[in-house]
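Quick bug: Sporulation initiation factor Spo0A domain protein output formatted oddly.
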Amino acid sequence: MSYDFFSMNTICENAVLHHRLFYCVSELFRVPGNHKRPQLSRPAQLLHELGMPSSLSGYRFLEFAMNMLAKQPHLLKNLDRGLYPMIAEKFDSTNGRVEKNIRCAIERAWLRGNPTLIREIFGYSVNPDQGRPSNAEFLCAVCDYLNR
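Here's what came back:
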């Protein structure tokens, strides 16, 4: 009697055996409650609540910038020479792209975001005739809001 490795019965038996083995091993290493979403950092949570899509590069740049400003607030004084180069180096980009992507992310949140939270964070500090806040105004207001 020859053993046909590729017969349908053998393939099905092997699949069942491997599935059971995989299930047993995965149960061994399963961590209770591990199916939940990872907890967002406070800056990421705030950007999300503002209505900024996390798919934008500017979102990641802003999250990193807010974390850096929490540790080194003096970076806010000179974004072009302090903060933008750090972000550009971290994300393998340029200062110009960092500035533009942050500006576009702010614009997106400003136009389509949560108006109640925007009003709560910015109040009357932003001129409505100019539209969205500048990058520095946005970072300053958001970091101030996080520190309250």
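Actually, after a second look the formatting is fine. DSSP finds seven helices and no strands in the chain. Closing.
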